[in-house]
Amino acid sequence: MPPFLRRLAARLRPLPRRVRALNTSPPVAEPGVLTSRLSSRAVVRFAGPEAARFLNSLLTNDLLAAFAAAGSAAPQRYGPTPNAPARGPAGPAYAALLTPQGRFLYDLFLYRPAPRSQMLDRTGSAPQTGEREEGEPTEVLADVDAAEVDELLACFKRYRLRSKVEIDNVSKDFACWQRFGHDVEHTEPSTQEPEAQSIGWGQGSDHAAESAAQGNGHGWQWLKDPRLDCLGYRGIFPADTIPPLVESDKEADERNYQLWRIENGVAEGSTEIPKGEAIPLEYNFAGLNAISFEKGCYIGQELIARTHHRGVIRKRLMPMKFVDENGQELEQAVAPGSEVVDEASGKKIGTVNTALGSRGMGLLRLEEALKQNSSLCISGKSDVRVKVIKPDWWPAEWTQMVEQQSAAA
């Protein structure tokens, strides 16, 4: 076998028939880079000449601008959101589908296919031939909540009407993965994972080799998570292959990724973002690059725009730690749905919506949660204290007024 094909086969190794051993120990905030296959996420394909415009008319983000940055012939009307670079290979776009009343329904990571020049032919030894279609993409893959995939498909099909788009669940063919950890963050302009980006053969640009190094014949690769730099890299890969850069001792159970998100105050999916109830701005969607305030109409846009321009959001999703009276962390002491109260006044300030180990997230009133010397606990469990954490990535304006009022008091 030629050397190139041996290297290609080594990088695109198939999944063995037996279950691969994962790091399933209790999740801890350990250093280094970990990788998780996200069984909580499914993959849906939108295909057809109107796929991009169909999605753009429904979802909160400006997908036409995002896909234009990825190489579409459609003009880019607005600048990218803060975490998305203006040039280079574009990562996935993050967006949400809302109810007409502006409440959360589903979150989606949306990928457009790679250029044909970066896809391998059937032999795996050379790029495919042929020109890429001009204009908007005719196929979009969406990484969605697996628990809601059937309802999501039915919902989008109701909105389809006469649009020329086919909607299918392709989770049997594709899987979602995440690379995360203390050492994975970087702020370079490129959206590609640096280690994968650096792999190549020779001094020239070998697109076939690059595609092999980055994942598979469909051209998918590790790309920067569109929400925050600290969340690392995300990708969709064929279900029967292991993505590049995944080491057996660094492949971790998905709970490790969930804990990483909890510690950074980022919810994902309808289990953590109450379907039909959550107001996206209270769940920090504006800071996670999920909402465009310039694109125009989409479902639920009126409430989102009014709340944003009013500029007053009194409750937000915040990470928290559960400790005892001595400050020692308490494992498995709190269940989702528990109320967080001010111990002195007995006043409820919020609710825990996600709990894992000694960590959790909850929708809390900012004024009480950030008050200096406040003493918070779980309702009915005064021995379980709550330490609220303000994420480092939060914009200063989110808490500036509250902190000024607290200091004056």
Give a description of the structure.
The structure is a single chain. The chain has 409 residues and is an alpha+beta fold. It folds into 2 domains: 217 residues, Probable tRNA modification gtpase trme, domain 1 (Gyrase A, domain 2), CATH 3.30.1360.120; 97 residues, Beta Barrel (Elongation Factor Tu (Ef-tu), domain 3). Helix content is 20%, strand content 23%. The protein is built from 10 helices and 15 strands. The strands form 3 sheets. It has a 6-stranded antiparallel beta barrel. A 5-stranded antiparallel sheet has the order 3-4-5-2-6, with helices on one face. A 4-stranded antiparallel sheet has the order 1-7-9-8, with helices on one face. Strand 11 and strand 12 form a beta hairpin. The longest helix has 12 residues. The radius of gyration is 22 Å and the shape is globular. The relative contact order is 0.16. The N terminus is likely disordered.
